[in-house]
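Structure ticket #2291
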Amino acid sequence: MAVVPFELIDGLIVVPVAVWGPGGAGRRFRFVLDTGTARTILSERTASLLGFSASGATRRSRVSSVLGAEVGYMVRAPR
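Resolution: structure written out below.
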């Protein structure tokens, strides 16, 4: 079994991750772990840093959370 380091910040589990953009460049981030979802949500700024854009999206999607709802775009990370 793998051991993953994490931080507990204001009741949220924060884990280190690496995400690759469409150009193959990867970057390291700290993400909040949400055990209730099958998708990963990126801010527009983070997606842009990785090279993702709305033009490369597979479809539009509406995301709802306790903070409200927003329309976004679904993209696939290369790995």
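Closing remark: The chain is about 10% helix and 40% strand.
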